[in-house]
Amino acid sequence: MYIIKLNAIDSTNSYLKDLVSAATQKDYTVVVAETQTKGRGQMGSQWQTECGKNLTASVFKRILSGKISDQFYISMVVALSIYKALRAFEIPKLSIKWPNDILSANTKLCGVLIENVIKSNHLQGSIIGFGLNVNQKTFTNLPQASSMQLVTGNTYNKDEVLSEILTQLERYFNLFELNYFDEIKSEYESLLFRKDKPSTFQTLNNQNFTGIIKGVTETGLLKVWTEDDIIKTFDLKEIKLLY
Ligand code: BTN
């Protein structure tokens, strides 16, 4: 484990991407920053964080003889690891919102951005970026966001939280490397936000429909049991879970 601590950087993911050459970089090289000037979120969004309050970090993990089809398993491994770390800090009402947001009740504590290093159709490594709201107390214009501190009233030591996340990442990546795929997928599915509950979704052309989340496919599509009594699958660009 090798941790690089920075004060400010554009994005820890971009910094780590420039640093790694997958063939040589050691596993669990970590970059942590107090703040990011161009933090990146999923689907081209921005990720904002209050300087010094939260964990904004990226971890490099080499994927041995990786297949492209492993990508969603890596995403599940990361979500499970952060979930388990937050559980160790007794954060209540945790769940994983597909594909890999970590929620407490219906507020978001952590977002994940994984960028893969792929060469000639093989997955060589992953840059696992996460933004975990730890001690931030106010979120302007982000009604769905919250932090560990807001949820429990306690202040947390960011180094301890990072260390627990790294411990869990090592544990779950070991399972992944030992091919415990079914176990990883079923544990992930058991922790999904709104699983087996009637929910409302919005399609790309702003149409709402109701359905029940039943799980995920191995490639990361969400399985929804719709009112026409069939299970349909959707990717992240196709639908948004409203409530
Ligand atoms: C999301 O949209 O929910 C994903 C947010 C991911 C943010 C983290 S913060 C550390 C790392 N560096 C980035 O630029 N983004 C990720």
TrEMBL record:
Species this chain originates from: Winogradskyella endarachnes
Keyword set includes Metal-binding: no
Catalytic activity, EC: 6.3.4.15
Keywords associated with the record: Ligase
Domain of life: Bacteria
GO cellular component, one term: cytoplasm
Name the UniProt record assigns to this protein: Biotin--[acetyl-CoA-carboxylase] ligase
Keyword flag Ligase: yes
